[in-house]
Design goal:
The longest helix has 27 residues. It contains four helices and five strands, in the order H-H-E-E-H-E-E-E-H. It has a five-stranded mixed sheet with strand order 1-2-3-4-5, covered by helices on one side. The C terminus is likely disordered. A hairpin with a 4-residue loop joins strand 1 and strand 2. The protein is α+β, with helices and mostly antiparallel strands. Helices cover 38% and strands 22% of the residues. It is elongated and about 80 Å long.
């Protein structure tokens, strides 16, 4: 893609230069198409400058071998991105998928945040109810430009909550540290 942009930029610059010479000749010899040539020259040079600016800002996507497509289903625009894995998502593709999603995040309005990238799948809990199962999580530190891999941990909630005190403790809305 970047080679095509480079070629197009060169051709548009040469075309704009040639049209510029024709435009100067049109004004010198008072041709009737001098104003049309002026507009065409300016437009061609503008296209060339735009292609050059795009070429300077273009970065190819980050690719990781073993990645499997997982669409992003939630992005709060600051510090959390969640991707949806299919039901038959292979376990060996979890880490490469997380690395690729984290590597392709752009800073934008994230202001150097540490962005948590999670991969989840949805399992049926019966009677039309489903629950998300987090397969893995990784942190992309945009300020330091590095990806922090988190150790594997059990993300599933405890099923054997025996009393209400345990339930309150595990569902508290206080941030954990």
């Amino acid at each position: 893609m970047s080679e095509v942009i480079q070629d197009v930029t060169k051709w548009l610059a040469w075309g704009g230069s040639g049209l510029g010479i024709l435009t100067v000749l049109a004004y010198l010899f008072n041709w009737g198409i001098k104003f049309r040539l002026t507009g065409t020259t300016i437009f061609t040079l503008l296209l060339s400058a735009s292609c050059w600016a795009f070429e300077q800002s273009y970065t190819p996507p980050f690719n990781v071998e073993g990645y499997k497509y997982a669409p992003i289903v939630y992005d709060n625009g600051f510090d959390l991105v969640v991707a949806q894995a299919s039901k038959d998502f292979p376990k060996e593709a979890i880490k490469p998928t997380l690395l690729q999603i984290a590597g392709n995040l752009k800073g934008g309005g994230r202001n150097g945040a540490q962005v948590k990238v999670r991969l989840r799948k949805i399992e049926s809990a019966g009677d039309g109810i489903s629950k998300p199962i987090i397969l893995g999580e990784i942190i992309n530190d945009l300020k330091e430009s590095k990806i922090i891999e988190l150790p594997d941990r059990n993300y599933s909630p405890s099923e054997d909550l025996s009393n209400e005190a345990d339930l309150k403790k595990n569902t508290s809305l206080e941030p954990y540290e």
